Amino acid sequence: MGFLIRLAITAVALWITTLIVPGVEVTGRSGANNALTLIVVALIFGVVNAVLKPVIKVIGCVFYLLTLGLFALVVNALLFLLTDWIARGLDLPFHVNGFWAAFWGAIVMAVVTWLISVVVPDRLAER
Q1: What is the Cα–Cα distance from 110 to 10, expressed in whole angstroms?
Q2: DSSP letter assigned to residue 97
Q3: The dihedral sign for the CA sequence 75, 126, 9, 28
Q4: Which of 58, 70, 126 is nearest to 103 (CA)?
């Protein structure tokens, strides 16, 4: 149950990101197609973050320390671009137009995900 709630939170955050950030877009033919695309892209984004982010943190810990954590913004943008690349490989109508769209998209995703997570009770997201 917790996995599905986290997936829904990420999908909603991704949808809000497509509304706020120019260059991050879902171009499906219908609302249902867009919703399904957002769910699949949220799943891809979650897997990419779960698998690669810890490895990157270990390997790049010196950069994190030297930049006082600002390197994390670049890493998040690159992971967002990787999500776009995988989505295109799966022929999903999701697109991120360049590094800056990915940079701002990753920031908006993080903030919106955090805000939604504050509203959703922990007991629901952990089950």
Answers
A1: 9
A2: -
A3: positive
A4: 70
Phi-psi region of 121 (alpha: psi -120 to 50; beta: other; left: phi over 0): beta
The pTM assigned to this predicted structure is 0.82
Per-residue pLDDT of the chain (127 residues; tens, 9 = 90+): 678 888 888 899 999 999 999 999 988 788 888 889 899 999 999 888 888 888 887 887 787 777 877 888 888 899 999 999 999 999 989 999 999 999 999 999 889 988 888 887 766 555 5
Residue whose entry in the numeric block shows the structure tokens 């993080």: 110
25 forms beta bridges with: 95
